[in-house]
Amino acid sequence: MATIFSLTALVALSLAGPLQDAAARNPASREVITLEIWTIEDTLIHQDGSSPEERLLREARYTLSGMIYGWDFSYTPGDRLRQVEELFHLEPLGTVPWGAPELRLRETRVRDGTRYGQFDYRLPPEAQAHRSQWESFASLHSSGTARADLLEGYQGKIAALEKALHQAVREHLRPRHPNKPHQVRGSLVLSRPPRIRTVSGYYEATVTIALEIRDATDYLLF
């Protein structure tokens, strides 16, 4: 019987390998990810008492974590005939820690009530191994776009992004599974920083992902 390794397992096996050793010996060789993050400064939108700088940092960590480690996901397509509710759940595979010395806020600026921050993140060896393995093994890609209410503040922005991840998985599966599966499990990662803008009172997020499908369970037929 053949043994099948998931991408998550292959990443774990690589962490003590040559990629990590080389990066540890030569920090200058590590990949640097540069992000520009923005947040609206209107306190009517952000009523949680958070500062613009805090929101910029939270979103930078969230985005970087999604680009380096990604998420495990489980997806149950909705089916009206079977009275099945559509469900989509994400479980982070890793996070960039608070206070990571490799994460640097290069500059901030304010324009038209929006604060922008440019971040540089020099990947530590463990993170670089994860990212390299995703690039090596993930051959499936998809994109999705979704919206969430602007008045939900920072959480609305993250909700739009996660709904876009959901949509990207749906778009990948639709032509490959014309008969809806009961449940699909796998992993996904952001291939590039998401594009997020405001449209008519909503956050609109567009994502491009790489993904691995580990299991697709069909309904039993009798």
From TrEMBL:
Q: Where is the signal peptide?
A: 1-23
Sorted UniProt keywords: Signal
Give yes or no: UniProt keyword Signal. Answer: yes
Q: What is this protein called?
A: DUF4390 domain-containing protein
The organism encoding this protein is Alkalispirochaeta americana
Tell me the lineage of the source organism: Bacteria, Pseudomonadati, Spirochaetota, Spirochaetia, Spirochaetales
